[in-house]
């Protein structure tokens, strides 16, 4: 049987940092209010389009795996904030990387996009359609943020994470997953006025409006991720106490803590980086896994559980059996263009 081993990993965080104190200059809020309710201290703001973040993360994943861009057979780009809808954003990454042999596709399931992309790539490798793939979760949420809305402006940030997957005979990579959606509640987390339905009106006139019903989202997030985790554990016949590390979507520290309690897992088995980046939507879980590897939290043959939740309302959980290698084989020299503005300067209207 074929598996899809993750042999390369990389991230790209734009350099401009927006702190809670910075947000307090725009909103009726302060560091204590944000931290106690979300666990977030700062987030990144991108000065470049999302495809640029994605390209740097992908190049780093390739270098980590010791591969060349021409080796890549498939690029799957998960995001909500694509530079353009046609042509797809994955083709732009292909062009910037020089991965001329790669097929390209985009996936949009909001915050779970990177994880859904991981499922698609894994399935295509397992079925023999391709032998390897780059999976990307990247987001530049700041471009569509309502910076006057305290309910959402404090939560989101920009970034990118990427993985290189290749066919392997050993049981590794994603060994079980569960995907789902609360479509009947899709309106409670939405960016209204974005898309062809309203393109001639709201977008052109800069009238994007965020729908964000926090309490209902909290309930659905915990329920969806818990349900997905239970399905994955049952499918793989593994008990929660056998999990070595949980790397959850970093939407809210309270959500993470509540989910851990439902799974009866101690906090020291849960990886958290929400304080550094906030919720980077599709990039959140991929970046968290990259950092867990970098910090030595993922060991050879570790069982890693990755629950996620996003607008739509999509949910997922992935159970990974890590391979033998946890160190990088190389470094990439691909970098972002320099940034000469502060985060506040980037988000303030001209």
TrEMBL record:
<dbReference type="InterPro" id="IPR013751">
    <property type="entry name" value="ACP_syn_III_N"/>
</dbReference>
<feature type="active site">
    <location>
        <position position="111"/>
    </location>
</feature>
<feature type="active site">
    <location>
        <position position="279"/>
    </location>
</feature>
<keyword id="KW-0276">Fatty acid metabolism</keyword>
<dbReference type="InterPro" id="IPR016039">
    <property type="entry name" value="Thiolase-like"/>
</dbReference>
<comment type="similarity">
    <text>Belongs to the thiolase-like superfamily. FabH family.</text>
</comment>
<comment type="subunit">
    <text>Homodimer.</text>
</comment>
<feature type="domain" description="Beta-ketoacyl-[acyl-carrier-protein] synthase III C-terminal">
    <location>
        <begin position="233"/>
        <end position="322"/>
    </location>
</feature>
<dbReference type="InterPro" id="IPR013747">
    <property type="entry name" value="ACP_syn_III_C"/>
</dbReference>
<dbReference type="Pfam" id="PF08545">
    <property type="entry name" value="ACP_syn_III"/>
</dbReference>
<protein>
    <recommendedName>
        <fullName>Beta-ketoacyl-[acyl-carrier-protein] synthase III</fullName>
        <ecNumber>2.3.1.180</ecNumber>
    </recommendedName>
</protein>
<keyword id="KW-0275">Fatty acid biosynthesis</keyword>
<dbReference type="Pfam" id="PF08541">
    <property type="entry name" value="ACP_syn_III_C"/>
</dbReference>
<dbReference type="InterPro" id="IPR004655">
    <property type="entry name" value="FabH"/>
</dbReference>
<keyword id="KW-0012">Acyltransferase</keyword>
<dbReference type="GO" id="GO:0033818">
    <property type="term" value="F:beta-ketoacyl-acyl-carrier-protein synthase III activity"/>
</dbReference>
<comment type="pathway">
    <text>Lipid metabolism; fatty acid biosynthesis.</text>
</comment>
<feature type="active site">
    <location>
        <position position="249"/>
    </location>
</feature>
<dbReference type="GO" id="GO:0006633">
    <property type="term" value="P:fatty acid biosynthetic process"/>
</dbReference>
<feature type="domain" description="Beta-ketoacyl-[acyl-carrier-protein] synthase III N-terminal">
    <location>
        <begin position="105"/>
        <end position="183"/>
    </location>
</feature>
<keyword id="KW-0444">Lipid biosynthesis</keyword>
<dbReference type="GO" id="GO:0004315">
    <property type="term" value="F:3-oxoacyl-[acyl-carrier-protein] synthase activity"/>
</dbReference>
<comment type="function">
    <text>Catalyzes the condensation reaction of fatty acid synthesis by the addition to an acyl acceptor of two carbons from malonyl-ACP. Catalyzes the first condensation reaction which initiates fatty acid synthesis and may therefore play a role in governing the total rate of fatty acid production. Possesses both acetoacetyl-ACP synthase and acetyl transacylase activities. Its substrate specificity determines the biosynthesis of branched-chain and/or straight-chain of fatty acids.</text>
</comment>
<dbReference type="GO" id="GO:0005737">
    <property type="term" value="C:cytoplasm"/>
</dbReference>
<keyword id="KW-0443">Lipid metabolism</keyword>
<keyword id="KW-0963">Cytoplasm</keyword>
<keyword id="KW-0511">Multifunctional enzyme</keyword>
<feature type="region of interest" description="ACP-binding">
    <location>
        <begin position="250"/>
        <end position="254"/>
    </location>
</feature>
<keyword id="KW-0808">Transferase</keyword>
């Amino acid at each position: 049987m074929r598996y899809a081993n993750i042999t390369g990993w990389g991230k790209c965080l734009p350099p401009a940092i927006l702190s809670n104190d910075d947000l307090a200059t725009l909103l009726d809020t302060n560091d204590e209010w944000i931290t106690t309710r979300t666990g977030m201290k700062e987030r990144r703001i991108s000065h470049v389009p999302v495809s640029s973040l994605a390209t740097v993360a992908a190049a780093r994943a390739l270098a980590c795996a010791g591969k060349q861009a021409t080796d890549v057979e498939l690029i799957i780009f998960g995001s909500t904030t694509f530079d353009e809808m046609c042509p797809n954003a994955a083709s732009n990454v292909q062009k910037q990387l020089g991965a001329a042999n790669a097929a390209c596709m985009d996936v949009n399931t909001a915050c779970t996009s990177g994880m859904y992309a991981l499922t698609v790539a894994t399935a295509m490798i397992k079925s023999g359609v391709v032998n390897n793939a780059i999976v990307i979760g990247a987001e530049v949420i700041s471009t569509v943020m309502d910076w006057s809305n305290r309910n959402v402006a404090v939560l989101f940030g920009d970034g990118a994470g990427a993985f290189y997957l290749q066919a392997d005979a050993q049981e590794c990579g994603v060994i079980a997953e569960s995907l789902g959606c609360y479509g009947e509640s899709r309106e409670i987390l939405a960016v209204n006025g974005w898309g062809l339905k309203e393109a001639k009106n709201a977008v052109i006139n800069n009238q994007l409006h965020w729908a964000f019903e926090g309490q209902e989202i909290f309930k659905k997030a915990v329920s969806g991720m818990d349900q997905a985790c239970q399905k994955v554990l049952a499918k793989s016949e593994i008990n929660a106490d056998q999990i070595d590390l949980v790397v959850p979507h970093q939407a809210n520290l309270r959500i993470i803590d509540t989910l851990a309690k439902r799974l009866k897992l101690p906090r020291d088995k849960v990886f958290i980086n929400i304080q550094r980046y906030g919720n980077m939507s599709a990039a959140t879980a991929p970046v968290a896994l990259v950092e867990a590897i970098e910090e030595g939290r993922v060991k050879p043959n570790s069982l890693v559980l990755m629950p996620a939740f996003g607008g739509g309302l999509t949910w997922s959980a992935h159970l990974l059996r890590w391979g033998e290698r946890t160190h990088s084989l190389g470094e990439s020299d691909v970098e972002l263009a320099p940034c000469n503005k502060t985060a506040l300067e980037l988000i303030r209207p001209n």
